[in-house]
Amino acid sequence: MSLRRTAYLTLLGLALLTGLAGYFAAQLRFNYNFNDFYPAGDPDLDYYQGYTQRFGNDNDYLLLALEAGPGQTAFSPAFLTQVDSVTAVARRQRHVVHVTSPTTLSQTVVEGLGAYTLPYLHPSEYRADPSRRAADSTLVFKTPGLVGNVVSPDARAVALVIQTTPDLKKPPGDSLLTELRAGLARAGLPEARAHFAGRAVAQSVFVDRLKWEMVIFMSLSFLLVMGLLWATFRTWWGVVLPLVVVLGAIVWGLGVMGACGISIDLMTALLPLMLFVVGMSDTIHIISRYVSELGYGAGKKHALRTTIKESGFGSGLSALTTSIGFFTLMTSTIRPIHNFGLFTGIAVILAFILSFTLLPAMLVLLNKPALRQPRQHGHDWDGVLGRLFAGVLRRRRLIFVLSGLILAASIGLATRVRINSSLLDDLSKNDPVRKDFAFFNDHFAGVRPFELELKPAGGRTVYDPAVLAQTEKVERYLATTYGLKFSASPATLVRTVHQALHGGGLAEYRLPADSAGLAQLRGPLRQFRKRPEFRALVLPDGSAGRLTGRMVDVGSIRADALNGALRHFLRTSIDTTVLRTRLTGSSNLIDKNNENLTLNMIQGMAIDVAMVTIIVLLLFKSVRMTIVVLIPNLLPILVVAGVMGLAGVNMKVSTSIIFTIAFGIAVDDTIHFISKLRLTMSHEPDLFKAVRRTYLLAGQAVIVTSLILVGGFGTLLFSSFDGTFYVGLLIGLTLLFGVVAELTLLPLLILGIYGRKRHFAGSSADLQSASQEPKILAD
Q: At what angle do helices 623-647 and 586-620 cross, to 10 degrees?
């Protein structure tokens, strides 16, 4: 079978496979499920899932804060009319279970055989009787649970707490937000005075921005890569062929995701860009070597055969190390990171397969290209790289000293890196959505949920006097020491019923003094327990209860300290023979992720380094060469860790992936270099000449691929997500430092460690030879 016929059949088969992959890729959907970021397989997650079946999710709510206009307060009649209008709109929505609003709040009073409700606010009477307004505001500020929950402490804003149906998805969540914004407009409330917070808001914003940013990143990367490819090869096919290969690899990678039923989330949204810039490496090495062979006078068939032979081994190893770098992310207990590592690693291998099937087939069918400015004595890059190599040799002592100083400083600064995260910390501080969430932290009880399950011991129920006394003790600690600004528990329900049965006076908002007083509440308790605001606080049989609340988002470091102190208080100050407790909730699970970040990162890096070590040992059978490879690739990692410490960048879910990815990518060029060196040494016994020849052959591809990688990751700097921004910045810096180490430290380490064995002394004649433009003959 002729070579051209084989190429045609190869293209036909790959086209069919690409069409199939495109079909599955079209099935992909965008998704941002907050629950996906919980630590999979963790016992606390299993416990929380059982807890939600008993009491419901702790984040099935939407907060809407409304600021009073100029010259108004939260108790101004005109403003309250607007609030009531928006409240009515919220209560009519299909996916709204209950709305807590200052205009619908009422106090229940039981007298004799009847019960009636008294609203806290009477806006229709304020104009005729200003004293009523003063009395109502005084009552609101004296009633526990209202200030900070539905009215701000400065009386300049009110909040609606909108309970939604469980696990509200994006389409109905978006519809709810749209209807509420329309209600604001009809009520005459400008959006500048309205602030939304809650899972529905984050879910809507994240998914919409993911779609838009994917388009931006790919467009910028496309233009950047086209420019660099043209500047490097100066031929149309040197631009088009790599793009065809990499775009095909992206379709294949997304097709695998679609076939496995995986959605595009905040992490997997990076896969196309990651593959676009990383997948270029093999194509550039192939075309660069192919052009070099053609430039040295080789025929097309011979040039292609030599290119595949010499590039295949190094490219295969680099694809392996890169995919391993991504696969190590599968050690993460966070599902989006796990999926990102798995499918990006698979896509890298697919890109390698296409690079050595699709690209050679297209080169076979392409007529022998006429190179721009053919040269008899090497290429333009040879002179530049020759002078650079000579400069490195002349300044070897300075390079080693600077490397040592940079290493020491980086290690010192890296110790300042802290693991810390907060809700929505992937959004910049100036983002409007994050500012809205911050409004609730500044003016209300906050947005961070708190959950504590209450389990009576010794056959008691949550209504037992001793259990209620212990519950109230926990509430006082949470309010005074822990920082909980709003809470509700079975004790809240009992106090409310007691107040209702004793005329509604504020002094009666308390627990009964004795068992007899509590016995009188049993009947009313069954009725009050059915009200929406109390429905999820106690199980029907009273065997367990829930202490729920909200607080300011203090960040994971502070939260860990608070939770540690809380657990100590519960162990030492609460009678566990009466009441047992367990901290749970979505915030607790997010904090749990931070405990695993360091371990996951260390595991990933250890696996990555171990695999690279094994590969180099198998390749060179030399421990010294292993050290030569690891030093210039670990040094940039430590430098970037130092940059993080210097800039005060915290380690969090989004930035924890940086080091394993960067190491896996950065080691690629080293693998290419040493594999080419291995081939060169088979027919060049002099080490100095072998290193110099390898430097000239590999240098162009190393620099170009590094520029594409740095530029590609640099497009992430335009992201509105802080996590994505830092992924782009820090991986880009790592790769930039990596190429510098590749072109300076790597050849010096090889010559320094193996120089005596090969009788290399670095004579002045060698330096002079290195600085001259070499006349390299074709193999």
A: 150
Tokens of 327: 């696969």
What would the mean pLDDT of 47-52 be, rounded to a whole number?
Answer: 90
- Alpha-carbon dihedral sign for residues 183, 171, 158, 88: positive
Rg, C-alpha atoms of the chain: 33
Those residues whose C-beta lies under 8 Å from the C-beta of residue 618, and which sit 6 or more positions away, are none
Which tens digit of pLDDT belongs to each residue from 319-359?
888 888 888 888 887 888 888 889 999 999 999 999 888 98
Q: How many CB atoms lie within 10 A of CB 5?
A: 10
Query: Using CA atoms, how far apart are residues 64 and 66, in angstroms rounded to an integer?
Result: 7
- pLDDT-derived band at 114, boundaries 50, 70, 90: low
State the helix-helix crossing angle for 586-620 and 300-327, rounded to 10 degrees. Answer: 140
Look up the pTM and report it.
0.77
Tell me the two tokens of residue 326.
Answer: 């991504």
- pLDDT digits 0-9 by tens, 383-407: 788 888 888 888 889 999 999 999 9
**Which 8-state DSSP code applies to residue 560?**
H
- Residue 71 — left, alpha, or beta (φ > 0 → left; ψ -120 to 50 → alpha)? left
pLDDT at 444: 92
In whole angstroms, what is the distance from residue 205 CA to residue 570 CA? 38
Between CA 717 and CA 723 the distance in angstroms is 10
The angle that helices 687-714 and 280-295 make with each other, rounded to 10 degrees, is 140
What are the chain's domains? 1-30+234-374 (1.20.1640.10), 58-203 (no CATH), 377-437+592-779 (1.20.1640.10), 448-590 (no CATH)
Whole-angstrom CA distances from 568 to 426, 470, 574 are 32, 15, 10
Q: Hey, what amino acid is at 290? A: Y
Structural tokens at position 510 = 């308390």
Question: At which residue do the structure tokens 């006078």 appear?
Answer: 297
The tens digit of pLDDT for each residue in 712-748 reads 888 888 887 777 788 888 888 888 888 898 889 888 8
Q: Are 673 and 743 in contact (CB under 8 A)?
A: no
Structure tokens at 663: 């190491």
Give all strands of the β-sheet with 545-551 in edge-to-edge order: 486-488, 545-551, 448-456, 579-584
DSSP bridge pairs for 63: 161, 197
